[in-house]
């Protein structure tokens, strides 16, 4: 019996013992024949970085950068990090260069510190290239991107051992076209000279053949950005035809209405300096490092500031749509998800923000407001409430549901996808909005142009056929109908305001004022 008690006690102690965390050990580092010294663990620990500790465990705490070619490669990468939109100051480049100049005279302790410092900064650089310097989850409440994990030690040691460091930097960067276009943008803007053109001001719109003193600096700006070419003796106060055509080119590059009218939006874009545009490009490069490196086989990608949706299938863009996105106060969230369901004839339940800011004030003015919009009030028991019996002191104790139909706020269909923001893609009863150039007009959801055609496109697959007449027959019933999307589509609802096309810089209005703030955080 005593033996039994002893065994039970031993089992209890063993089961309660705290489980040690499993640390992934990096592969061993193959050291060169050049000078090696043993590194004091105090030197390694002074960098307060777990990756660095694990890295040197793989070399038995010996220095690894004895090979001059490998060392020079790392130093050159860090020195030219600015060409990739990064900040050389983040990697202590001057201090590293000073160590390298004095390499032959370094004692063992100095050499050890140089070696660890080189590793620490190169791993930081690689991490910044792979997933960005900053964490968007710590910056924004309305960003929900998939986590990007990066085992920097395994990646670095593998290429270190195989002498492939020269391909490592290229390999870990995003492969997407937009990212490559942004790197090209950085090259292009660096080719422009420093600009010192005065701020352009005009109290009124300028149209063809007008005379306005602001046109002199406007033309200087157009010459600077190469939208206007030819002789510069045309710097007059007259808005001539040649300048008119160059303004339209400028407007098109900036996503403005290319009508040749110089209004507030065009003047604002013209007043951006080279420095500001370069900072904008760098901010966008950081964002693209936050995004997924690889796209799904089939996906929807929405660029919020460009008001555009593209459907891409097997690397081919099959559908392009204009969209309406959230206002500055009611922003469309940035997220990655998967499309799940098409809902025809959806009802619309008034969300809390719209209830508080729009519905309650309107109901206080006119109790028939909701009835005119075909919205029914329900109490907590599910009973219909007469608008004149509605209690304005407890507006959140009711549900407000709009019946299906052409004039429903969601229009005739919506597309659902999992997210924490209660947003979706949908039709709208304000279909005239798609003709505007500024389409930051919604309450957060994305409204899609010609949505029934889009629904037909994504529901058609090898097993299902969805002709237009089939969808029309469902719409006619005015009955809410849910159809699961059989084909797998990822949704990338993202935000970028700069890129390049055919060696031309392309910019969009930063509708949520994110660019300057992000750049400031990157450099501080």
Describe this structure in words.
The protein has 19 helices and 18 strands. Among the domains are: 41-173, no CATH class; 293-494, L,D-transpeptidase catalytic domain-like (Beta Barrel), CATH 2.40.440. Helix content is 38%, strand content 14%. It starts with a helix and ends with a helix. Strand 17 (498-501) and strand 18 form a beta hairpin. The model is unreliable at 1-23 (pLDDT under 50). Strands 1, 2, 3, 4, 5, 6, 11, 12, 13, 14, 15 and 16 form a twelve-stranded mixed sheet that branches. Strands 7-10-8-9 form a four-stranded antiparallel sheet. It has 524 residues and is an alpha+beta fold. It is globular and about 90 Å long. It has helices at 2-16, 41-45, 50-57, 68-79, 93-101, 108-131, 136-139, 152-161, 165-172, 177-190, 215-224, 241-253, 264-270, 274-290, 352-365, 369-372, 451-459, 468-477, 515-522, and strands at 143-144, 298-303, 308-313, 316-326, 334-338, 341-344, 348-349, 375-378, 384-385, 399-402, 413-416, 425-426, 440-442, 446-448, 481-484, 490-494, 498-501, 504-507.
